[in-house]
Amino acid sequence: MWNCRVYRNKSGGSDLAGCTVKNPHFNASQSIAVVHNGIIENYMKLKTKLVARGYQFLSDTDTEVVAHLLDYCYKKTNGDLIDTITKVMHRVEGSYALGIIFAEHPDKVYALRKDSPLIVGRSKDGNLIASDVPAVLKYTRNVYYIENEEIACLSKDAIEFFNSDGEAIKKEARTIEWDTGAAEKGGYEHFMLKEMYEQPKTVRDTLTPRIREDQIVIEELGMKEEEIRSINRIHIVACGSAYHTGVTAKYIFEGLARIPVEVDLASEFRYRNPILNKGDLVVIISQSGETADSLAALREAKAQGITTLGIVNVVGSSIAREADRVMYTWAGPEIAVATTKAYTAQLIAHYLLAIRFAQVRGMITEEEVAEMLTDLKAIPAQIEMLLANKQNIQKIATRYGGAKDVFFMGRGIDYAIGLEGSLKLKEISYVHSEAYAAGELKHGTISLIEEGTLVAAIVTQKNLYKKTMSNIVEVRSRGAVVLAITNEDNTEIEKNADFVIYLPQTNKYFTNSLAIIPLQLFAYYVSVGKGCDVDKPRNLAKSVTVE
Ligand code: G6P
Prior knowledge:
Structural class: alpha/beta
Strand content: 15-25%
Strand order of the largest sheet: 1-2-3-4-8-9-10
Low-confidence stretches: 1-22
Number of helices: 16
Helix content: 25-40%
Shape: globular
Bound molecules: 6-O-phosphono-alpha-D-glucopyranose
Largest sheet: 7 strands, antiparallel
Radius of gyration: 25 Å
């Protein structure tokens, strides 16, 4: 079985829809079949050589090159399978996880990888390959993580491993502790809805093991107080929603711990020749731990000798294995492409880190720590309350589901949550939406506001109430319909908003954990209302393991 949920061929040529191999690439005689996740960078060069040797291609995909190259090497080695595969491995450049079947050995599946994730699952009913753990959870909890340039040979009852020289190697299986039920819908209509409802538990699971006797203890971090005190600058690097966690975290680390923070999209960071100095800490945030750009950013930081910290959800994933330090977000397997509970867990992990760093650096008092911990512990119940209010959001979503554009605005942390709310909406409902720092409106976006345009205004930062309110008045006077998300004490806003969702009282740094709930629900109900495929939105993948 191949986990096709995370598979995307750059050229879109290989359609591996479903979870079984439906459409592999073959050599001419159809005696070798290949499935591939990744990109073969030198495929044109290889193709030219193979064409010169008489090979005919049926597609323009990079994957087909592998099938013909296997055929060529198979003949060269007189059918020595491991020799064939290592020869192919040494010729192919790029990132790949490959699954291969030879017709002459129908009881075996060969698999190998470089820079694209690959795991092998061992079960008494047969063995499996997949690109990540959730895909095999239904069948087994015993998995082997295949490292770069390793080869696995699976038959029904045995698994063998080889290195890139074709020598047999031993590998230890890891037991996955995740609840298998987590990979099933459990009565919910969609995984996304189920995962939204799991958020209170996710918060508890991420929080509880790290609070002991009213102190934050992040044991696995392994950072001595001296090391925490000597951090000069934090670079947070991530993609998608994880990047939005980073944007929020910047405000919190800077506000609480007074450590300067830079936040980068991983795809930018890796190519911008970042200036990293001794004493810097590079934090890579990733649900899957396999995002190609984030992994490359991690390696870039490590190559420069900078300490790296992975905030990762998937245990044993590449980022978790390669980062100097790891802090897990205990969200469990997330199946819906649009992240909800993993994002929520990432926020919690950053609150804990920021409070701990601030405490060690003497920036906050013990009383402040105690108050914050009390507020953190209240978050799960507060999320439950907001989820219980879903009908209100559903009504608004039904009314504005047909919107052409939706804008999100806020200042500071509220801007960060707007980014995530906007991404959720466009990801799963295909409604165009953008998030703006409210102060930027008049530098462009305001010209897009028309009669009836929906603007979601997030207003949770007391010191910025007035400022954002004046932006609300501006958009409303141009015809916008305003959905405000604000604290329960800000009833004043009713004068200027068409709809108001109130959030329960929490620390000003934690409001995103609450404000995201109505925004997730809004995106969800717009998507459902439009009949979209909520869990598998078009053109998107759960883990983007190619650049
Ligand atoms: C994809 C997913 C997003 C996710 C992003 C980063 O685009 O669809 O939901 O935020 O990748 O993924 P990561 O696994 O690194 O958090």
